[in-house]
Amino acid sequence: MRTALPPTVRPAVRTVTGPLDPYTVRGPVLAHEHLVLDLDRHGDRAAVLDPQLHAPAVTGELTALREGFGLALVVELTCRGMGRDARALARISRDSAVAVVAGTGWYYAPFHPPEVRQAGGADVGALTEILVHEIRHGIGTTGIRPGVLGEVGSHGDRLTGAERRTLRAAARAALATGLSVATHAQLGRGGLAQLDLLTGEGLPPHRICVGHQDLLDDPVTHKELAASGAYVSFDTIGKESYQSDGVRLRLLLGLIDAGHADRALLSCDISRHAYLRTEGGQGYGHLFGSFLPRLRAAGVEEETIDLLTRRNPLRFLTGGHFSP
């Protein structure tokens, strides 16, 4: 059950530069992105967005999207063990004048840092304490507090033991702090298992976003997730090597036609420097410049576009307390 806030309390989105009143957000939100990232495990430096080398290009793209499309907010889901840099996020946010939400939690098992194994033998309680402390006191010594748990992950239809523990810790930390949880479901698989585990800890579905569902060509699963009240994230838009945007469009239109437009989130998940516009990639703006025009051409009205790109992510971030 959703708990109503007292009339005098307005929900706030916690950004890297301070609290943001969601009622002041007039432009669209990118619901699942990376601005600073390091997933390099083989020395090729491909899955990297370096805070020094690539930050100028990232900042330039966000600035252009703010000026051209009104981009207002980016949900940045680089969490623990993924090369997160809170100070760099704050610089990018200030320089681009685009608000940024930072994440916390743990990615899927191959990227778990040693602390997952070391903290109380990966005890769920000890892992929860790590997350709650960071949410309440800030990332490292920065004082910058995360505004979402994510992207907390698993890979495959069955979660590993470590993934179950980190996801349970995320759910418990969410309940303790009021934040919502965004997941990484590798290639879209395992989303229902994630939902069952998170709700099993008592977290309401409307505070859960199941990630990468546009990589899973399974409308039945999407509708089941949405019907539960969880958000269904179509967040790799433009990554044609994984899935064509034509398939993404069909899946999203199916979800909208089934009456679940209020459960979908959209983004591009820029996770390699080759995806940046300066390096010939599709960039963060692919959603606005390419995919949304196709959605409009398919007959989706502007009110629904606003729902998908602004109101839904704000409701997710505020735990359902944002009611425009």
From TrEMBL:
Binds 2 divalent metal cations per subunit. It comes from the Bacteria. Its cofactor is a divalent metal cation. The keyword Flavoprotein does not apply. A divalent metal cation 1 binds at residues 32, 34, 151, 269. Belongs to the metallo-dependent hydrolases superfamily. Phosphotriesterase family. PROSITE patterns: PHOSPHOTRIESTERASE_2 (PS51347). A divalent metal cation 2 binds at residues 151, 184, 212. Keywords: Hydrolase, Metal-binding. The keyword Hydrolase applies. GO terms for molecular function: hydrolase activity; zinc ion binding. Pfam families: PTE. This is Hydrolase.
